[in-house]
Amino acid sequence: MAEQNLTTAQTQLRQHFAQLVAQNKLVHAYLFAGPQGVGKKALALWVAQGIFCEAVQAGIPCGRCNECRRIAEHNHPDVVEIVPDGLSIKVDQIRFLKAEFTKSGVESRRKVFIIQEAERMTNGAANSLLKFLEEPSGDVTAFLLSANTSQILPTILSRCQLIELPRLPKEQLQQQLIQNGIGAKQARILANMTESVPAAEQLQANEHFDSLVKLTQQWFNMVIRHDPMAFVLVQSKLMPEIVGRDERELCLQLVMLLARDLLLQHLGQDEEVVFTETSIETLGTVETARLVTAVELVLKQSRSLMVNVSFQTILEKLTLRLMDLYTPGTGSR
């Protein structure tokens, strides 16, 4: 499998696992943890290729032989992948897996199991898996993949070797998005709102994304100019674009980035600014504490989404509070 676009940490992990494969020192169960899209599944499949590769060198698979190709195509009988069935991984899926554990490999003595989104195992499924992890049998290596290890039973966590895959640096994520055909400006926004290419592309696919970016920025610029038409824009233009929870969360994320941009400009960290069109010069002299409080205020609004509060009410109250906080004072820049 190609190693292009890997982070330094991911490259080091491949080198680490290549050594383990070469020395036959793989443990029976690993938990790969990290955000969606950072390469957990790719790493598990790469290690599986190293195990079965016909031309492996120092634990590194060739990526071209029949074994490597079948694994890459998810068509190898001794590499079994489990994915959620609907919203969860069910106990019957783990029972099937346990039955496979007890068999010798179809074409070799080795077997590899990859359980995607392991945090979505039901309690019954997790408890069913636990016995194998407590008493492994045969020449088996299991990879559990998870973006949220806090939802996995502690007893399972304790029986796996935890490997954390860090998120892509924002700069690298932005460059990958640009390479995938996304404009530079939009790629910068997406890289600051998501943690991976798949998550960014999913967000961009929201039909309201482009208009929400434009309208939220327009509203925010009205707010920092203390323009009362900001209230009209909320009702007449923003709310029609906010059709569900996803759009509410997206809108607040954008407001957070805009409020953060003002603080970063105030602190002289212009290279970190996302929306360069929004300038702190519009405000005049505002105290640092007010800019910090504005960021904290926006952060708190996400809690309001958990209760039955009108989102229009949230935005209108936010408009008033931000206008107050962004009133020029006597603080120095």
UniProtKB/TrEMBL annotation:
EC top class named in words: transferase
Entry keyword Nucleotidyltransferase: yes
Keywords: Nucleotidyltransferase, Transferase
Name of one Pfam family that matches: DNA_pol3_delta2
GO biological process assignments: DNA-templated DNA replication
GO MF annotation terms: 3'-5' exonuclease activity; DNA-directed DNA polymerase activity
EC identifiers of the protein: 2.7.7.7
Keyword Transferase: yes
This protein's name: DNA polymerase III subunit delta
